[in-house]
């Protein structure tokens, strides 16, 4: 069994319109949302073996807060492919994960995360900022993940 947690970064700051999209920070509310979600997942005993995130400022901050809240003391992997990723790039990132990883937390952006969830489990709603979805795959290898062995277990949203 492989478990994938998909998280979209929470609300971003819009204070500096001259800032490049890559450099946008989380808003204060987005930071609060991240702590709230991290605490919620910790209470559910979620302990990812690996956190992979886009290197954009807002997803880096999200990953760092989630690592803190989940007491994740390993290296966070930042993958440039996850910023403005195409669907096939997201799937490749997941399928190239070492099989010693059983629980993977992927932190990224829309619209690619919504496309990923639609493709894997048929969930048609937009992945909202700060949301986390848990998908289980009935396989022992990430290379074998597919719509046929994927099951959406839950969706958690922030306020």
If you had to describe this structure to a student in words, what would you say it looks like?
It is built from four helices and six strands; from the N terminus they run βαβαβαβαββ. It is α/β, with parallel strands linked by helices. The protein has a single domain (2-156), classed as 3-Layer(aba) Sandwich (Rossmann fold). It has a six-stranded mixed sheet with strand order 3-2-4-1-5-6, sandwiched between helices. β2 (50-53), α2 (57-69) and β3 (77-78) form a beta-alpha-beta unit. The longest helix has 16 residues, at 28-43. The mean pLDDT is 95.
Beta percentage is 15-25%
Report the C-alpha radius of gyration, rounded. 15 Å
CATH-defined fold name: Rossmann fold
- Largest sheet features: 6 strands, mixed
Strand order of the largest sheet: 3-2-4-1-5-6
Question: What gap, in angstroms, lies between the N and C termini?
Answer: 31 Å
What's the pLDDT, averaged over the residues?
95
The total strand number stands at 6
Q: How many helices in DSSP terms?
A: 4
According to CATH, the homologous superfamily is Phosphoglycerate mutase-like
Order of helices and strands: EHEHEHEHEE
Low-confidence stretches: none
- What gross morphology would you assign? globular
Instruction: Kindly name the structural category.
Output: alpha/beta
Helix content: 25-40%
CATH class: Alpha Beta
At CATH level 2, the architecture is 3-Layer(aba) Sandwich
- Kindly give the count of domains: 1
Pfam families: His_Phos_1 (PF00300)
GO molecular function, one term: phosphatase activity
Protein name: Phosphoglycerate mutase
Binding site for substrate: 58
């Amino acid at each position: 069994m492989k478990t994938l947690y998909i998280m979209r970064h929470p609300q971003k700051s819009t204070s500096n319109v001259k800032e490049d999209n890559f450099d946008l920070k989380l808003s204060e509310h987005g930071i609060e949302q991240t702590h709230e979600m991290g605490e919620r997942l910790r209470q559910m005993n979620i302990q990812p073996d690996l956190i992979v995130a886009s290197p954009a400022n807002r997803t880096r901050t999200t990953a760092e807060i989630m690592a803190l809240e989940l007491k994740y003391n390993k290296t966070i992997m930042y993958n440039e492919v996850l910023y403005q990723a195409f669907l096939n790039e997201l799937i490749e990132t997941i399928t190239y994960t070492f099989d010693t990883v059983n629980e993977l937390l992927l932190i990224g952006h829309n619209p690619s995360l919504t496309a990923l969830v639609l493709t894997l489990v048929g969930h048609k709603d937009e992945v909202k900022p700060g949301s986390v979805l848990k998908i289980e795959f009935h396989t022992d290898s990430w290379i074998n993940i597919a719509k046929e062995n994927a099951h959406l277990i839950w969706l958690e949203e922030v306020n």
